[in-house]
Specification:
about 250 residues; alpha+beta; about 30% strand; binds biotin
């Protein structure tokens, strides 16, 4: 984000948590926290995010959008789309999005996004948009090999993280402005769907209390994943509550 404060840490528990601390002290929209290493990196669905000091990007952005709380999860898709778009401009043409917000290269995860919303009564107080990108890591722990990759491993090139980060913030600022204007994702729906790895694939929809198989079609203008059930019924799956995985594995 242009002219916004970027707070840099060598080591921190979690950049998302730090943004929450700063936000509660009144930090402005657009504040960015970046860390070299996280000791308690957070992932989606209560999981942790491995965050060694190994040439990666761990970054969170403080957003204070004036939108209804139900619309805030769309920001996750906006950020995923922006990171993917920047990767494409950096020559990483085969980047794909696993709905709603994982970025995938050669079938392995290269980037994860965690957005957390804080309410003030019924209104959005702030949203933390956190992004972890495996940039220059050359080795993963055994349990992640086969599931995770890095830009270095995919391209054979060491990436300048500062430049990559600047590009992401710049593109995100532009796309964020479109989102707050339209309050939907119509402006990126088509481009997002072109990068969607799930399109046409059979997925397992994981709802809080049940799972079912369906064929993914693409996102609608609200960022919901349209799936077609075995009975031929089309359903819109909401990103705030549900995630999907491939029937045969991660994608
Ligand atoms: C996921 O795919 O599960 C989401 C991972 C999000 C990780 C990033 S790293 C920067 C920010 N701080 C955190 O604690 N998590 C996010």
């Amino acid at each position: 984000m242009e002219n916004k404060e970027i707070v840099y840490y060598k080591k921190i528990d979690s950049t998302n948590t730090e943004i929450c601390r700063l936000a509660s002290k009144g930090a402005p929209h657009g504040t960015v926290v970046v860390a070299e290493e996280q000791t308690a990196g957070k992932g989606r669905r209560g999981r942790s995010w491995e965050s060694p000091a190994d040439g990666n990007i761990y970054m969170s952005i403080l957003l204070r959008p004036k939108v209804e709380p139900e619309k805030a999860p769309m920001l996750t898709l906006v950020l995923a789309y922006c990171v993917a778009k920047v990767m494409q401009t950096w020559g990483i043409a085969n980047v794909q999005i696993k709905w709603p917000n994982d970025l995938v290269l050669s079938g392995k995860k290269v980037c994860g996004i965690l957005t957390e919303m804080h309410l003030d009564g019924r209104d959005v107080d702030y949203v933390v948009a956190g992004v972890g990108i495996n940039v220059n890591t050359q080795h993963f722990p055994e349990e992640l090999c086969g599931k995770a990759t890095s830009l270095y491993l995919e391209t054979g090139k060491t990436i300048d993280r500062r430049l990559l980060l600047e590009d992401i913030l710049h593109v995100f600022e532009l796309e964020y402005a479109c989102f707050v204007e339209t309050e939907d994702l119509s402006f990126l729906q088509e481009a997002y769907n072109e990068m969607l790895i799930n399109a046409g694939a059979e997925v397992c929809v994981l709802e809080p209390d049940r799972e079912y198989r369906a064929q993914a079609v693409g996102i609608n203008r609200n960022g919901e994943l349209i799936v077609r059930t075995a009975q031929g019924e089309e359903k819109a799956v909401y990103a705030g509550e549900v995630s999907v995985r491939g029937v045969y594995g991660y994608v």
